[in-house]
Amino acid sequence: MSKPRLLVTRRVMPLAEQRLKSEFDVALNDHDRTLSTDELIAAADGKDGILSSPSDRLDASVIARLPATVKIIANHAVGLDNIDLNAAKARGIVITNTPDVLSAATAEIAILLMLGAARRASEGDRLIRDGGWKAWGIDFMCGTEITGKSFGVIGMGRIGQMIAARARGFDMTVHYYNRKRLSADEEQGAIYHDSVESLLPHAQVLSISCPLTPDTRKLINAERLALLPRGAIVVNTARGPIVDDDALIAALKSGHVAAAGLDVFD
């Protein structure tokens, strides 16, 4: 019996590549660059499945052009916002992803970004490298102490809960907004808010970990940023388009937002 034919659009880790070669008739992208739409369609010819990556934009127009042989797209990512799910469903193409494998890693990055933003780590690094750190001063490079601050989470799923658990290690009071309230066991004492607007005034540190949907695109805009306490810190480890970049830049310039730690931006 012949092996399933698989297109892998970007490079994967060596052990995964070995397994793919053993279990599939696999076509690899040795150059590890994002394929153009025409290249992807051509490479998918005769394939049973596609192992895609977040850099592949599989919108409705691309999915409509995929060969009829393609029955599954396995996205090498936690998110699925690079794929038009409705178009895939209409074609009868199964879509899968890799939930939870990066939850702990993302939570660690959120804390890294929170601390780096609060303690002005990138500024200090630049000062050292550029020779600008000359002498001690009482208010030189003062940052923000986050211990005991209130920590607001938008999106209290697997990742949001892991981030909140780590924030509690800094004696932070956790507030959260989620589409539905968690059970008491999942909340672990966190304070629920039934709207983003209700949450924001309590968020001295705001952590964004919700999915990107039509409803959450530019969710954090100028009006909502204005609801944060002055001097708040914004951390985004979700998706860039959830935050209005121009509005965040304006809030940083005005000082209303003291710092931002961004894993992603639009």
Strand content: 15-25%
| Biggest β-sheet strands, sense, barrel | 6 strands, parallel
- List unreliable stretches of 5+ residues: none
The number of helical elements comes to 11
Cα(first) to Cα(last) distance is 46 Å
**Nearest-angstrom radius of gyration?**
22 Å
Mean pLDDT: 96
Based on helices, strands and strand pairing, what is the structural class? alpha/beta
Total beta strands: 11
State the helical fraction: 25-40%
Shape: elongated
* Oligomeric state: single chain
Description of the structure:
The structure is a single chain. The protein is an alpha/beta fold and 266 residues long. Helix content is 33%, strand content 17%. The protein has eleven helices and eleven strands. It has a six-stranded parallel β-sheet with strand order 8-7-6-9-10-11. Strand 7, helix 8 and strand 8 form a beta-alpha-beta unit. Helix 5 packs across helix 7. The longest helix is centred in the middle third of the chain and has 16 residues. The chain is elongated. The termini are far apart. The mean pLDDT is 96.
Describe the structure concisely for a colleague:
The protein has 266 residues and is an alpha/beta fold. It is 33% helix and 17% strand. The strands form 2 sheets. The chain has a 6-stranded parallel beta sheet. The protein has a 5-stranded parallel beta sheet with strand order 2-1-3-4-5, with helices on both faces.
Produce the secondary structure layout.
Elements: E1 5-8, H1 14-23, E2 25-27, H2 37-43, E3 49-52, H3 60-65, E4 72-75, H4 85-91, E5 94-96, H5 103-118, H6 121-129, E6 150-154, H7 158-168, E7 173-177, H8 184-187, E8 191-193, H9 196-199, E9 205-208, H10 222-225, E10 232-236, H11 245-254, E11 257-262
Parallel strand pairs: 1-2, 1-3, 3-4, 4-5, 6-7, 6-9, 7-8, 9-10, 10-11
